[in-house]
Every structure is written in C-alpha cells, then in structure tokens.
Amino acid sequence: MSSLVSSVSGAAESLFATLFPSDCRLCGAPLVNISRLPVCEECLSAMRPITGGVCSVCGERLISRYAFSGEQGEPRCGLCRRLEPSFAKAAAYGSYSGGLRELIHLLKYEQVRPAANVLGRMLAEAIAALEPSFAEGKVLVLPVPLHRSKLRQRGFNQSELIARAALKLKPAGDRLALNATVLERCRETQSQTGLTRHQRRENIRGAFAVANPDDVAGREILLVDDVFTTGTTVSECARLLRRAGAAKVWVATVARTLKADAAHAELEPEIEAGMRMAAHG
Asked: 191, 223, 253, 268: which sits with the fewest CB atoms below 10 Å from its CB?
C-alpha cells in the first residue's frame, strides 16, 4: 500500500511540474513539489540557526575570547559591556545573509506571503529561546510597525504577518498576546541601510510613539521584527516602551546581521552612539 501511495504521489508531483512549470525563486532549480511557496527544499534546509558564541544580551557574534559579564558570568560583546541596551535581551534565528535574506526579501518586496509561515517558524524558535527568561503572566507581543504610507504601499506589515504565524505555534504556550496597535510609526523614515551614524540617529528619532501607555505599563513586552541590523530601531522602540512604563522589553527577530571581525570593529562605535541615544533619550 505504501509503495502505491508513493507512486501516486510521485506521479502527481511530476504532473504538477509538467502542467505548472516553475523554478525556485532563490536558486533557480526546477520545483517538483506542490507548494504555495516557490522555494525548493534544498534552499529551505540550508537556512540554519545561528551557532557558536554570541552575546548574551544583543545576540551579536562574539569575536573576542575576553568577552565576559561580571554579573552572571554570561558572555557579552564589548558594546553591551560598555553600554546597557534599553532591551533586556535580543534573540534571532539565523544570520541575515544568503537564502534567509532572500526569503525575507521575497515577502517584503515581492509580496510572496506564504514565506511568512516559514519565517514564522523561525521566529518561534527565537521566541522559545527567550521564553525561560519571561516573568509569570502574559507577555504583550508588539510587531515593529510600518508607517501608514508604507503599509498602504506594501499591503501588509511583514513583522505582524511573521509574528502571527509564530504565535500559532505557541512557542511560549498561551502566555503571548499580540497587539499591533500599541506601537505606532508616526513619521516616515528612509531605509537605515548605508546611512552614517548621524543620519541613522536623525532618521529614527521621533519616528515611533506609544499610542496608549496604559496598555504597556507594568507589563513585559516582546518586540518582534524581521531583521535586527544595527539595533537602532528596536533600541528606540524599547526606549519608548520603557519610558511608557513597560517592566521589561525583549526582542525576537527572524534574522540578524552578524558582523565579521573587521566590519564589527569599524561599526561598533557607530552602533554604540545609536544605542546611547536610545538608552538616554
């Protein structure tokens, strides 16, 4: 019976490939499986979680054997040792590179919405890594918002789509409650990519607001986004949430930029300035 099912399944896939020819949007290989997501299994399997030593606070890859924390012995990058971020801890599933970066772009820029389900599973893993640190009670999940003009243009907030997909998997049981209206993007900003230190600070300053501080007062917040790059955006959001009375802010993202030694040494002062701005208002 199993051989019959296998034969029928194989025939169906061959017929699908013949009638609906398509290629993987990432590598270009022909797709042979019936799926709403135009990405092959090989590309999906290659999107692996971050391994190796990372900072216990921001999740950056540790490039120094001298990384340490005096409080609980947990390793910290140089930046987090020198300056306490406005969030308690950030976790990401994978590196923002290769196929994972392209999959995120498929969702954001080519409106391939089924990608949100795969990315949601990855976000759920990042949330599960943070879950043991959550306090008792409900944790409020806030997707980083888009400005209304960008939302109209794209048709959806990718962070919200990914968050909803992740929460269906219950990575922290029933303790997570999503609210997509508490945090607002009240000013349109340009992409942070390629901006100088001064431009990045000016670009993000005043871009967000907490719509109703009573919703966050005394509560733990889980801030979710698709990508953690320099940390300027999530740091600014966390700063505002703490100012509004949030007890603690956690950050979970699908991917984060992991810097090579030379790039990290070059950019660290720039990132530090952005975090200092967020921490001290």
From this structure: 191
Q: What angle do CA 264, 243, 223 make, to 5 degrees?
A: 55
pLDDT at site 220: 98
Q: Which listed CATH number (3.40.50.720, 3.90.950.10, 3.30.200.20, 3.40.50.2020) goes with 84-280? A: 3.40.50.2020
Q: Can you give the C-alpha Rg of the chain in angstroms?
A: 20
Range from 1-15, 39-53, 88-102 carrying the lowest mean pLDDT? 1-15
For residues 98 and 46, the answer to whether their CB atoms sit within 8 Å is yes
Report the DSSP pairing between strands 248-256 and 89-95: parallel
| Mean pLDDT of the region 156-168 | 98
User: Residues of the chain with pLDDT > 70: what percent?
Assistant: 80
How far is the CA of 11 from the CAs of 5, 107, 149, in angstroms?
A: 10, 30, 47
Pairing, β 183-185 against β 208-210: antiparallel
Residue 254: pLDDT band (50, 70, 90) is very high
Q: So where are the chain's domains? A: 1-43, 84-280
